[in-house]
C-alpha cells in the first residue's frame, strides 16, 4: 500500500445500503468510518469490513445529519423553557447533529466573553449533539464584538425592534450599520431579526384571541422595510448579512436583486412558514404565535418558490420554546402569549411531508436543511456525507408515517402547533461522529468558529 492508497483494511463502522445520500445523490454505497470521520465511500458490494456493520433495509436512507443554525436553548437563566439536555435530545431524535444557539433568552445574554464562558459552562456535559454559539450585538457592546469573534462565535445577532426580553435590547439601523462595519473588518457576519419597530408601533394591537388580529399587528410591511435597511447597510459596509426567519414573500424580489448586485446576503426560512397557513389557525391557538407571523396560503407558495429559485438559502427551525403558562394556552390571548414555535425534533418530517406533496426530492430537502446551513456557518466538516467529513448521519424512513404526540417529544414543554398532525418520514436513529446517540450519554462537543 502506497501513501496515496486509502486504507480499507477495516473500519470502526461500515454502513451499507441501496439508498445512501452522498454528494452523488441517493446511490448504492458502502461507507467506511474511522475515528469519527468518513474515510471511504465505495460501490455497494465492495466488501468493506468494520468492527460494527449497519445494513440498511430497502425502506431506509442514510442521510447527513441536519445542521440547525437557529435554536433558542435558553440556558442558563431560563432553563425551565428549554435547556441543553432536552434541546439536544430533541434535535438528535429529529436527525439534527449540529445546532447553533442564539444569544438571547439566556441570562446573561451572549453579548461579551464572560457571558459566553457562562453559557459554555452551563452546556458542559449536557450536549447530545455538537453545539456552537452566536454572539449578540446590542447597544453599547461594539467593543465586545472582536473578543467574542476571537473566542469562536459564528457571527452576531441583532434585532431591529424589541427582542421580547429586556436583557437583549435592539439596535436602530444606524447602530446596526456601525456594528456591521466593525464586523466587516474581521469578516464576521450580522444575522438580523428584520422587522421595523416603527411599522409595528403603528399597526393594530394584537390583544385578544383572534389570529387575524395578531397577523394584522405584524404586517408584511414591517419585514419589508427592515429587510430593505439590512440590504442597503450591508451594501454600504460590505459585511456578510443574513436575514433570519423570512416570513414575508414580498421581500423576495429585493433580496434576489441584492444577490444579483453582489451584496453578501443570505436568507433562511422555517418549517412553520412553509407548512402552516394563517387561514387554518383557530382563534385562541397561541401555540401558533411566532414573530414574524405565519401568513396566508399565497405567501407560503411564494416562499417555496423562493427556495426553489435560490433566493432563500436554507431552512432552519427557529425553535423558540417557552413554558405552557407563557403561551397563555388557557386564555388564548395573542397579545400576551410568548411568540415562538417549538419544532426542533420535527423539522425534517415537517418539510419532507410538504416537499413530497410538491414533488420535491429528498436530496433537495437535505441540501436546504444540512449542507446549506453548514455552509452558512462555515462548518466545513458538517452537512454532507463526504470523504473527510464528520460521520454525522441519521437513518431516515421517508415512506413511514407518524402522528405527532406533543407529550412524547423530547422538548421540555409539551406545547406545539403540530400536536396531532400526521407527518411523512421517521428518523429511526442518529449518529454523531460514528457513534449512535443513545439519549443517555452526552457525547456532543462545543464548536468554535474555525474548529472545535
Automatic annotation (TrEMBL):
Q: Does the keyword Hydrolase apply?
A: yes
- Name of the protein described by the UniProt record: allantoinase
**What is said about its interaction partners and assembly?**
Homotetramer.
Needs which cofactor?
Zn(2+)
Q: Which PANTHER family does the record cross-reference, listed alphabetically?
A: ALLANTOINASE (PTHR43668)
Q: Which gene encodes it?
A: allB_2
Pathway listed for it is: Nitrogen metabolism; (S)-allantoin degradation; allantoate from (S)-allantoin: step 1/1
The EC number on file is 3.5.2.5
Amino acid at each position: 500500500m502506497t501513501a496515496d492508497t486509502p486504507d480499507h483494511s477495516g473500519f470502526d463502522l461500515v454502513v451499507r445500503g441501496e439508498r445512501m445520500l452522498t454528494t452523488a445523490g441517493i446511490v448504492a454505497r458502502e461507507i467506511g468510518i474511522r475515528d469519527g470521520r468518513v474515510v471511504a465511500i465505495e460501490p455497494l458490494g465492495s466488501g468493506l469490513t468494520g468492527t460494527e456493520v449497519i445494513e440498511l433495509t430497502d425502506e431506509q436512507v442514510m442521510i447527513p445529519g441536519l445542521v440547525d443554525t437557529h435554536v433558542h436553548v435558553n440556558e442558563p437563566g431560563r432553563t425551565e423553557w428549554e435547556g441543553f439536555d432536552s434541546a439536544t435530545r430533541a434535535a438528535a431524535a429529529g436527525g439534527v447533529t449540529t445546532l447553533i444557539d442564539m444569544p438571547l433568552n439566556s441570562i446573561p445574554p451572549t453579548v461579551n466573553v464572560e457571558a459566553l464562558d457562562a453559557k459554555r459552562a452551563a452546556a458542559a456535559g449536557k450536549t447530545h449533539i455538537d453545539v456552537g454559539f452566536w454572539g449578540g450585538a446590542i447597544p453599547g457592546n461594539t467593543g465586545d464584538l472582536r473578543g467574542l469573534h476571537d473566542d469562536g462565535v459564528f457571527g452576531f445577532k441583532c434585532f431591529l425592534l424589541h427582542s421580547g426580553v429586556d436583557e437583549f435590547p435592539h439596535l436602530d439601523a444606524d447602530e446596526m450599520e456601525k456594528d456591521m462595519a466593525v464586523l466587516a473588518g474581521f469578516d464576521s457576519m450580522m444575522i438580523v431579526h428584520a422587522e421595523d419597530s416603527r411599522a409595528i408601533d403603528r399597526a393594530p394591537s394584537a390583544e385578544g384571541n383572534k389570529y387575524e388580529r395578531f397577523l394584522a399587528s405584524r404586517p408584511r410591511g414591517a419585514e419589508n422595510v427592515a429587510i430593505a435597511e439590512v440590504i442597503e447597510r450591508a451594501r454600504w459596509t460590505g459585511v456578510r448579512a443574513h436575514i433570519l426567519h423570512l416570513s414575508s414573500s414580498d421581500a423576495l424580489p429585493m433580496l434576489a436583486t441584492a444577490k444579483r448586485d453582489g451584496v453578501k446576503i443570505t436568507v433562511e426560512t422555517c418549517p412553520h412558514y412553509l407548512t402552516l397557513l394563517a387561514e387554518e389557525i383557530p382563534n385562541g391557538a397561541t401555540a401558533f404565535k411566532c414573530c414574524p407571523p405565519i401568513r396566508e396560503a399565497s405567501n407560503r407558495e411564494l416562499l417555496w418558490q423562493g427556495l426553489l429559485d435560490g433566493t432563500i438559502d436554507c431552512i432552519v427551525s427557529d425553535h423558540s420554546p417557552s413554558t405552557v403558562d407563557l403561551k397563555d394556552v388557557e386564555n388564548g390571548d395573542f397579545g400576551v402569549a410568548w411568540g415562538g414555535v417549538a419544532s426542533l425534533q420535527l423539522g425534517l418530517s415537517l418539510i419532507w411531508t410538504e416537499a413530497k406533496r410538491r414533488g420535491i426530492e429528498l436530496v433537495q430537502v437535505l441540501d436546504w436543511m444540512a449542507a446549506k446551513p453548514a455552509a452558512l456557518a462555515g462548518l466545513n466538516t458538517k452537512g454532507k456525507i463526504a470523504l473527510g467529513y464528520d460521520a454525522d448521519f441519521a437513518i431516515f424512513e421517508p415512506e413511514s408515517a407518524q402522528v405527532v404526540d406533543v407529550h412524547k417529544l423530547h422538548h421540555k414543554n409539551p406545547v406545539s402547533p403540530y400536536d396531532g398532525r400526521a407527518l411523512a418520514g421517521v428518523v429511526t436513529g442518529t449518529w454523531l461522529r460514528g457513534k449512535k446517540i443513545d439519549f443517555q450519554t452526552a457525547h456532543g462537543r462545543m464548536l468554535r468558529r474555525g474548529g472545535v
